[in-house]
Specification:
Length: 137
């Protein structure tokens, strides 16, 4: 997985895995290494398929097809977090290994500033265990 947060262009690589949500409400991409991390909940009924998933906010409980994406990255000794809520997640290979790309705009609450984001995901294996995918207050 390659991630780019554009302002001064922060790039990082990290391993990702994908689990099916236990409720059957989608798939969870996740990975973290050295303070960098990506979490994406792709909402799809049943099996994940190729195509576009609009980026939605965490609190959106009615949109049946979409993706919620969060990114954490470190510059120097300062950590940053983004909720990427405007843009698209595109899945180009839906059977493991999975390939996808996220392009959008995210808000970093700490900076109260928006950033352009591009994340490329390739060769993500599926993990056999299911996980709980639900929004917690």
């Amino acid at each position: 997985m390659h991630g780019v947060v554009k302002r001064d262009s922060v790039r990082f690589d990290l391993p990702l895995a994908v689990n099916q949500c236990g409720s059957g409400r989608g798939w969870l991409f996740h990975g973290a290494a050295r303070g960098q991390g990506v979490l994406a909940w792709v909402r799809a009924a049943g099996a994940i398929d190729t195509g576009s998933y609009p980026l939605i906010t965490r609190g959106d409980s009615v949109t049946p097809r979409g993706a919620t994406v969060a990114i954490r990255y470190v510059t120097g000794d300062i950590s940053h977090g983004l909720i990427v809520d405007t843009g698209m997640l595109q899945i180009s290979a839906a059977r493991p290994p999975i390939n996808a790309r996220v392009r959008g705009v995210g808000l970093e609450p700490k900076e109260a500033e928006q950033f352009e984001v591009e994340v490329t995901v390739s060769g993500v294996p599926a993990v056999g265990d299911t996980v709980t995918c639900r929004v917690q207050p």
